[in-house]
Design a protein that fits this description.
This is NADH-FMN oxidoreductase RutF, flavin reductase (DIM6/NTAB) family. The protein has one domain: Pnp Oxidase, Chain A (Roll), CATH 2.30.110.10. It has 4 helices and 12 strands; from the N terminus they run αβββββαβαββββββα. The protein has a 7-stranded antiparallel β-sheet with strand order 3-2-6-9-10-5-4. It is globular and about 40 Å long.
Length: 169
């Protein structure tokens, strides 16, 4: 048997970016969750995956609507990451966002985003493995493109040697 705390500690030693996945419910309300379980799957067709908890309020919305957006958060969006990591229906209150031409809820200020159509949905233990086909994408300008990182339970910036902001200065 694997100790759950040791498992979390080992996985937490792997630095990742921080994403927020959003969708619009049947009443056009923004729902979403914070995820570090995000990965590219395929170049042709362009597929990515994200792994929502089965208990997430957003997961059923993604399944019903068939579309979602993955935001790679910028280094100044830590408060948004924590907001969408919480439970509750008012996560988007006070957060700037707009509806895209593809019908997705896009958070303003993200370092990058991918708009996806639900490609497939697989079981993955207490999470789902949601594969999306990328329909549109965008990366921010250099001064806003540095992502928020997560490692060992903490969030932070890229070191200066990896920062686009330092590279363009």
């Amino acid at each position: 048997m694997i100790d759950s705390q040791a498992y979390k500690q080992v996985l937490g030693a792997f630095p990742t970016g921080v994403t927020v996945v959003t969708a619009l419910d049947a009443d056009d309300r923004l729902v979403g969750f914070t995820a570090s379980a995000f990965s590219a799957v395929s170049m042709d067709p362009p597929l990515v995956l994200v792994c929502p908890s089965l208990g997430s309020d957003s997961y059923p919305v993604i399944r019903r609507s068939g579309r979602f957006a993955i935001h790679i958060l910028g280094h100044e969006q830590e408060s948004i990451a924590y907001r969408f990591a919480s439970k509750g229906s008012d996560k988007a209150e006070g957060i700037a966002w707009h509806r895209s031409t593809h019908g997705n809820a896009l958070l303003d200020g993200a370092a990058a985003y991918l708009e996806c159509r639900l490609w497939e949905d697989y079981p993955g233990g207490d999470h789902a493995i949601v594969v999306g086909e990328v329909q549109a994408l965008r990366v921010a300008t250099a001064e806003k493109a540095d992502p928020l990182l997560y490692c060992r339970g903490k969030m932070g910036k890229l070191p200066p040697t990896l920062s686009l902001m330092a590279a363009t200065a």
